[in-house]
Amino acid sequence: MDFKQLEIFTVLAQELHFTQTAKRCHMTASAVTRSIQRLEEELDVTLLLRNNRNVELTAAGKQFADYALDAMQRHQAMKLNLLQQAELVSGKLRLYGSATAGYGVLSRLLTGFRALYPQVELQLHTGDQAAAIETIQSGSEDIAIAALPEELPNGIAFKTLLFSPLRFIIAVEKSQVSEQLEVLQQAKSGSVDITQLPLIVSERGLARKRLNQWLKKQGASPNIYAQVSGHEAIVTLVALGFGVGLVPELVIQHSPFRDKIRIVDDAPVLQAFQIGLCALKTRLTLPAVKAFWDAADPTIFEGGVNHG
Predict the structure, then answer these.
(1) Angle 28-32-35 from CA coordinates, rounded to 5°
(2) Which of 78, 111, 115, 270 has the greatest number of C-beta atoms within 10 Å?
(3) Are residues 76 and 105 in contact, defined by beta-carbon separation less than 8 angstroms?
(4) 283: pLDDT confidence band, cut at 50, 70 and 90?
(5) 308, part of any domain
């Protein structure tokens, strides 16, 4: 059952007349009848005794009418309380994330948040995702979109929103690098030997750390062509044909160059990014910060690229 059904039954219990109930609920009498029938089927009891002249509540109907009225009153009180709380939340909220975080994460969080808390002034700052947690530690930002590090610093809270696999990528169009890749694929039946190709990597951050760990396990020395700040810059250089890159799949999905690159299917699989919100635990007591943190619902990201 839902609150609409409860509302219809509450009005009918007061009116004891289908036509009058339909008018008050802005429905047809037949729609009211169908709603009551579904309610009786769901509860597996008879709520009303009706004939051509009269409508009466059964004993079960009277009991359910009391429950429905109480539930409706509690629902209205809760809505009013939430609205009043929202009106009390104001001030500035400083948010940090990469360009990809803005497109792929914040855009999906802000719509609902703005509807609930219109008095909060948002200040959005973008930059390298590798610096996200540092901005929180320094106190320059209230909340940041970040990848969960292998060790979360003391005093930092983290709320997971989604997972994004790490992918090796290469240019779609023919280049010296793509030709080298084809040679490697033809020469071996196993995975592509990424270490033999020019790599475009992050200067620092979790992706670089996981790549270094993998290379160390292979006992390999990487052939690094370029080191850049930010995953978006990696995609750009890869699209231009300068080398192979390693980026989260979320970055690929929201890149303007996504049609100019492709994932290397038989490349090594590295541990996925766990992406979410981070904030100083002490700041979660601030109304605007707590409101944004609580409103961030991980279920809105289900069904995307991002579970792994």
Answers:
(1) 135
(2) 270
(3) no
(4) very high
(5) no
